[in-house]
Specification:
358 residues, alpha/beta, Rossmann fold, 2 domains, 7-stranded mixed β-sheet, 6-stranded parallel β-sheet, 13 helices, 39% helix
């Protein structure tokens, strides 16, 4: 059986959407036919400031573990760590004839650093000095964007997928349910939920008459700001903050929801297109989606694209009550189109074609 290493460089929050995504990808690589091992460079260091710094500079233990496993492919989740040390890591792997695929979760990403402060901007400056040199060692970059080449490397275009496998048999049209929304997020500025709260306030009497509720799920940098807006605008009866949830607790919140809220402020990260993880999970739960960016993978399915960075709750409501989506149909779309087995096979096939050409 061929072998594959899934390589990480940062500790994952247990139960987070990213952790569940990685676990799903690993299972899919194994279903495709690859014996798969996860190697996380951060596991070799202590969870201290010094340990975290050293994990970005020293890849010797990971190189040893990868080479001992003797894989045909190393699949890397890239978190903007290009440096002389990372380039040396790539070179050591490539010198053994191993195929290397780099997954970039969001691209472009430079604008995301604008609101993060001086230290992250310094990290980005350093990363930009070295990222184009990765071209020498990479076979492909896996992207959710529409770019054919990134950093001089050919891409394989894939779609983000739901990390849960849920079957819905409810054939009732979504518009016949209560008008309630859920926003499951890591809560960064580009998610734009401040825009949503402000427009809820603008239309508050209209929404209260509908007994509308917004459930905000997640922790992140924007949470204090969002709570402050909700308090200042007296929205506590329509907006609930739940913090991080997963498993049965998250499923329970989904039970009375009719619409999923994706990113509403993508222009803040200079990115008008995106293939988000959350949108696929909303579909898996049988929910239509509200967003302001383009998503080539789901635009033909149950979603409304609002004007960039503009949110109008009345527009959303009228779209909602005129829709003909059923939870069963949306769930079926997710289970057919947005599963990792289908998407990751695109990468394996691309590597096979390249190998045959050689």
């Amino acid at each position: 059986m061929p072998r594959l290493v899934y390589f990480l460089t940062e500790t994952m929050l247990i139960g987070s959407g990213i952790q569940k995504k990685i676990e799903s990808q690993v299972r899919s690589f194994e279903k495709i036919g690859y014996k798969t091992r996860v190697v996380n460079n951060s596991d070799f260091f202590t969870n201290t400031v010094f340990g975290k710094l050293k994990s970005k500079l020293d890849f010797r233990n990971s190189i040893s573990e990868i080479l001992n496993f003797n894989p045909e492919i190393v699949y890397i989740r890239y978190v903007h760590i290009a440096s002389p040390f990372f380039l040396s890591f790539l070179k050591a792997i490539k010198n053994e004839g191993i195929k290397i695929v780099l997954e970039i979760p969001t691209f472009p990403y430079d604008q995301e650093y604008k609101s993060r402060g001086a230290l992250p901007l310094t990290k980005l400056f350093a990363e930009r000095l070295f990222r184009n040199q990765m071209e020498r060692y990479l076979d492909y970059i896996a992207t959710y964007s529409d770019d054919s080449r990134i950093f001089g490397v050919d891409t394989v275009k894939i779609a983000n997928c739901a990390s849960v496998d849920k079957v819905i048999n409810d054939d009732i049209l979504v518009k016949h349910k209560s008008f309630n929304m859920i926003a499951v997020s890591s809560l960064y500025p580009w998610h734009g939920y401040d825009l949503l709260l402000n427009n809820i306030k603008t239309n508050i009497e209209f929404l209260r008459a509908l007994n509308f509720k917004l459930e905000v799920v997640g922790d992140g940098p924007e949470l204090p700001k969002l709570k402050s807006i909700a308090l200042e605008k007296n929205l506590s009866d329509v907006v609930n903050f739940h913090g991080h949830k997963n498993g049965d607790e998250l499923d329970e919140l989904y039970r009375n929801i009719s619409i999923g809220v994706d990113s509403l402020g993508r222009s803040r990260s200079d990115n008008s297109t995106n293939s988000s993880l959350k949108s696929k999970e909303y579909l898996m739960h049988g929910l239509p989606i509200v967003k302001t960016h383009q998503d080539k993978d789901i635009d033909k399915f149950g979603s409304i694209q609002l004007t960039l960075d503009e949110v109008n709750m009345k527009e959303i409501y009228h779209w909602f009550i005129s829709s003909e989506y059923s939870s069963k149909d949306l769930n079926h779309i997710a289970r057919k189109e947005f599963v990792w087995d289908v998407q990751l096979l695109k990468i394996i096939e691309a590597l096979k074609v390249e190998k045959n050409v050689d």
